[in-house]
Write a structure and sequence with these properties.
By secondary structure, the protein is mainly alpha-helical. 59% of the residues lie in helices and 8% in strands. Strands 1-2 form a two-stranded antiparallel ribbon. The longest helix is centred in the middle third of the chain and has 25 residues, at 46-70.
């Protein structure tokens, strides 16, 4: 765990951090979203699994924010809207 002692170390480790594959996301069709996949001996459709992925990552961001607060620090915003606003301002500054 020492290799993730700082947020910079975590951000710089591409093997640890998850990022959505834009090619995959852009290629998903309505038909693909309805396709079912095996999960724990049951079947769930891709749309529900993708929703679960978003919900589950939100759950973990909340856990991390709680841990940071317990350490006496103020966590950064993790809302998707803040991400979009930050990305939008970064794009404007790069132009």
């Amino acid at each position: 765990m020492d290799e993730y002692a700082t947020s910079q170390a975590l951000e710089c480790n591409p093997g640890y951090c998850f990022s959505a594959d834009p090619e995959f996301v852009n290629s998903v069709t309505e038909e693909a979203l309805r396709r079912t996949l095996p999960v724990l001996e049951k079947q769930l459709n891709l749309a529900h699994l993708m929703q679960h992925l978003a919900n589950h990552s939100t759950y973990h961001r909340g856990q991390i924010a709680s841990m940071i607060r317990r350490l006496g620090a103020e966590p950064l915003p993790t809302d998707f809207a803040f991400f979009l606003l930050e990305r939008s301002s970064e794009s404007a500054n790069a132009s």
